[in-house]
Amino acid sequence: MNRIALLLSLSVLSSCAWLPEDGKRATLMAMSPISQTLNSDAGKIIHAWPKARWWTDFHNAELNRLIETALKDSPSLHAATARLTEAEAVADYQAAEMLPLINANADFHHRRFSATDFYGPNGGESFTGAYIDPVVFRYHLDLWGKDKASLEAALGKERAQEAELAITQLVLSTAIARSYIELSSVEEDIELMHTLNEKTQEKLQLVKLRFQSGLSNQDAIHVNEQSVEATQQRETSLRSLAQVLRNRLATLAGQQLDWGKTIHADETHAVALLPKPDALSLGLLAHRPDVVAALWRVESAAQSIKVAKTNYYPDVNLVGFAGLRSLNLKDLFISHGASLAYGMGPNISLPIFEGGRLDAELKSQQGAYDAAVETYNSTLLSAVQQVADNLVQWQQTVEHDAAQTRALVAAQDAFTLENKRFQAGLSPRDGVIDAELGLLQQQLTTSKLHNEHLLAAVGLIEALGGGYENKTPIKSE
Q: Would you call 322 helix, strand, or coil by DSSP?
């Protein structure tokens, strides 16, 4: 019996399809430090990674309301959540495949047996019978790790989808923050432009009075009329842009367009939410959901290769049943257990000739793995670049804000001085208006640079992952 078992095992193994050798696979790119890329001034404004609800650090209740509404009602976020639910269900199904399967069968039938076949004395007769199996057992013997690899592949896709959900949340929240910051800036510019328009009209009236008095020529009137038209056009454009931004915010929040009219634009304040330069290379992986998602896809693809390789080996299922079977229904429950039937044993399938199917499947999974690795490498490179670029932009806006603050103070001082001269009768009203127009222009520039500073803050927060952190460690292969 032992010799027979050994011969049977050898024949089973020799009947397997031939597993091809592994070719050269793509390799994961290592995280390189970028402390040399970031200049030493970066450490002066860097404190910590963004937190999960990073938008609360802008100290704006309306911005908080917009983002919280979007996270609750956005259709794109609901779709991402549904995809995660689907991935979780697939992983649950793969986990269930590793457990024994027990069910019950019942077959009631009326049959006539052929008189010219091999049914013996029953040939040409009709019978009403039943097969009742209250216990049907199947258990897949995971000899080569196929079920485990399938489960790991499904879990990898599930975790990648979790990261995809975080990506959707990050993109949605940063898009709302950008649109709201722009709306607040535009609303401020509308007020400034309206005042600027009033002052240009006032200056035009003074020029017309001088022309009527013969104190100036008509050229000055034309120049000031052009200024009035230009400021009116800019104010109209700003009002249209404000409506477009309100429509965009309503859509992003998953609301009807009229909901955008209820949005209250208010000033926001940016804070420094940046990591230390020496932590960027080490912490970027855990804080960038796109990098994490790409890495989980690599893990899932690696497990799928294992599944494809196990298809070259024999597949063994342990099956069994126990029940009652009778050709005649009336004899099904006769005494002495005459209708009792049971059985148990292995069910072995052998891949002998598959016409290249197994090779094609393995090659497909290997190609998918290489593509996933290169996608990860590309995502990693882009992530590091985005952090470095956004940090440069952030620092630039900090410097521009500081310079513009000094320019605004100078314009305010010039207006105050010119107003004193006018009050003292030392200069005409035109000088006061020109000084005030200069002050308004500096205030418009200040609003623009402050807007750019806040947008740079949002861009940097998004580049840093917006407070996302991967909670599940990824196994290294």
A: strand
What is the pTM for the complete model shown? 0.82
Q: Which residues of 259-270 are buried (b: 16+ CB within 10 A; e: fewer)?
A: bbeebebeebeb
DSSP labels, 85-148:
HHHHHHHHHHHHHTS-EEEEEEEEEEEE--TTSS-GGGTT-EEEEEEEEEEEEEEEE-TTSHHH
Query: Candidates 3.50.30.60, 3.40.710.10, 2.60.40.10, 2.20.200.10; correct CATH number of 101-141+315-349?
Result: 2.20.200.10
Classify domain 17-98+142-314+350-463 by CATH architecture.
Answer: Up-down Bundle (1.20)
- Which of 57-61, 423-427, 450-454 is predicted with the least confidence, judged by mean pLDDT? 423-427
Is the pLDDT reported for residue 11 higher than 80? no
Does residue 5 sit in helix, strand or coil?
A: helix
Q: Rounded to whole angstroms, how far apart are CA atoms 53 and 64?
A: 9
Measure the CA–CA gap between 271 and 398, rounded to whole angstroms. 11
Give the integer Cα–Cα distance in Å for 156 and 294: 10
Q: For the chain, which residues make up each domain, given as ranges?
A: 17-98+142-314+350-463, 101-141+315-349
Distance CA 178, CA 461 (A): 12
Place of tokens 């970028």: 34
What's the mean pLDDT in 444-454?
89
Residue 375 to residue 356: CA distance in whole angstroms: 28
Rounded to the nearest integer, the mean pLDDT of the chain is: 84
Query: Tens digits of per-residue pLDDT, 243-292?
Result: 999 999 999 999 999 999 999 988 776 655 455 555 566 677 778 999 99
